[in-house]
Amino acid sequence: MTASLIAQQEARGVRFDAIAAADRQIAQAFARRAELVDEARRYGAATAGDAPRVPGSRWDAATVAEREFVSELACTLRVPQRTAQTLIAESRALTEDLPATREALQNGEITYRHAQVLIGQAWTVPDEAKAAFEASLLRSAGRLTAAKLKYNARKLRERLHPETITARHERSVADRATYFQAEADGMASLVLYDSVDRVQSAYDRVTTAALSLQGPDEPRTLTQLRTDVLTDLLIDGVTPSGLGKGIRATVNVTVPVLTLMGRSEEAGHLEGYGPIDPDTARRLAAGAPSFTRLLVHPETGVVLSVGRTSYKVPKDLKRWLRIRDETCRFPGCNRAAAHSDLDHSLDWQFQGRTAHDNLAHLCPGCHSLKSETGWRLKHLGDGRLEWTSPTGRSFTSEPGTDLATDQPR
Q: What was the pLDDT predicted at 331?
């Protein structure tokens, strides 16, 4: 090897060393954040009885303090409240239950992803066995990927757990869930989390159906066929009990008028997803029965306010607000507007109006947060909302779709 090549390799090695050093600093920052989050949690719990409560609140002081802390932490870090709750629990675990893991994180020996693996597998390990569980895994954690560490941790946890896997599985089934995730380029993912026998059976059925469609004249791959079979079954299928018969999902697609007329290539907007290509927007607006066709035009004719004449929100205003909001309007909450409440920001009994600039979608949890805690809400205009936390810090919630209107009254 020439001297020049040796020098190049050494220079490359220096860069890898710098990357490793930066990664250690990131791990140390995560350890510091965990300490700060848990210190804030303990402070909030200790002072819960001193916090002012909203008159007529149904929640006790401890509940108010806990919900205020979770919600403001979520807004501060720009994460959903469920993610903030998980962070609080992880920070507490690192501080109280797994001190050696926190130390390894602080020393940059493991990443936060490794720490999360240890925390997740240690939740249900008996207290008397946690130290041994932690020490055994940390011996090799710094040399393993997080996936490999999780595999080792699952095996060790199984040996240490006092309950049978049958009993634990029966409880875990209650956590089954389905998630929608928007992706790039007009694509999305649907994730199913359920008992392995049900998921495996569903996958096998879809695979069998896809295989039956293969042939010399079928250009689609097996993966593409699986996907097409699954989506067709979900959209049009019927369960053995008859569930799903006559049911079609409804989503809203907003299409600029010029795009619809073929005179513009401006993107359409699919509720809950965002921009879609003009051809897809035109196709959906042209007559797909599962889509509501809404045209964007300066003169929509939608009634934006009925003032104090009616508490009930008119149907066209409901639809306009659903398009505007798309989700619950508390910062970071992604609950669909279609499954949230339309709330009078200034309550009706306090002279609040039934108008676009006094209405916003709030999911049941965030609706209660507004009613029971010190959070305050103000409309800024054009669908933007300003939320002020109990500590006086402000956070802005942007509308899902820009439907410009006059400033709020």
A: 94
| Dist. CA 20–CA 30, nearest whole Å | 15
What's the pLDDT at 284? 73
Q: What does R_g of the chain's alpha carbons equal in angstroms?
A: 27
Q: At what angle do helices 61-77 and 81-92 cross, to 10 degrees?
A: 100
Q: Percent helix, strand, coil in the chain (nearest 5)? A: 50, 15, 35
11-40 confidence digits (pLDDT tens)? 989 999 999 999 999 999 999 999 999 999
Q: What is the DSSP letter of 362?
A: E
| b/e sequence 169-190, b meaning 16+ C-beta within 10 Å | eeeeeeeeeeeeeeeeeeeeee
What kind and span of H or E run contains 323?
A: helix 315-325
Intra-chain end-to-end CA distance of the chain, in Å:
77
Please give the pLDDT value at position 379: 94
Determine the pLDDT at residue 238. 56
Please name every residue paired with 179 in a beta bridge, in sequence order, or none if there are none.
191
Residues 6 or more apart from 229 whose CB is under 8 A from it? 206, 209, 210, 213
In sequence order, the β-bridge partners of residue 255 are 295
What are the phi and psi torsion angles at 385 (to 5°)?
Answer: -120, 140
pLDDT tens, residue by residue, 321-358: 988 898 999 999 988 888 898 999 988 888 888 888 89
Burial 48-58 (b: 16+ CB within 10 A, else e): beebeeeeebe
Contacts of 347 by beta carbon, 8 Å cutoff, 6+ apart: none
pLDDT of residue 299: 44
Positions of the chain with pLDDT lower than 50, given as ranges: 239, 243, 294-301, 407-409
In degrees and rounded to multiples of 5, residue 329 shows phi and psi of: -95, 10
Residue with tokens 């006059």: 406
Residue with tokens 């508490």: 311
Task: Return the amino acid letter for 360.
Answer: A
Interacting residues of 390 by C-beta distance below 8 A, sequence separation 6+? 51, 68, 72, 373, 374, 375
Q: Bridge-partner residues for 1, per DSSP?
A: none
DSSP character string of 250-266:
-EEEEEEHHHHTTS---
Angstrom distance (rounded) from CA 85 to CA 69? 10
Please give the full DSSP string across 275-317, using - where no structure is assigned: EE-HHHHHHHHTT-TTEEEEEE-S------EEETS-SSPPHHH
pLDDT for res 306: 54
